[in-house]
Specification:
Length: about 70
């Protein structure tokens, strides 16, 4: 904790790129060449944008546990 801020570390194996940030479904196969994330629920987003939402949500979840 520095300057009133807290660092939350997300596990490096957290499946942020493979998890739908809308419904939570995990895609077992997602190649690095696939730059657009498409889920069966109809959610479509840039792969990195989707991952960033998942990382934010996981950080908030972990913060709530502290």
């Amino acid at each position: 904790e520095e300057q009133g801020k807290q660092l939350i570390k997300i596990d490096k194996w957290f499946p942020s790129s493979k998890t739908c940030s809308c419904c939570g479904q995990i895609k077992e196969s997602l190649s690095l060449s696939e730059r657009t994330f498409r889920c069966d629920c109809g959610f479509v987003a840039d792969r990195d944008w989707n991952a960033s939402i998942n990382i934010k949500n996981e950080g908030l979840r972990l913060l709530a546990l502290t």
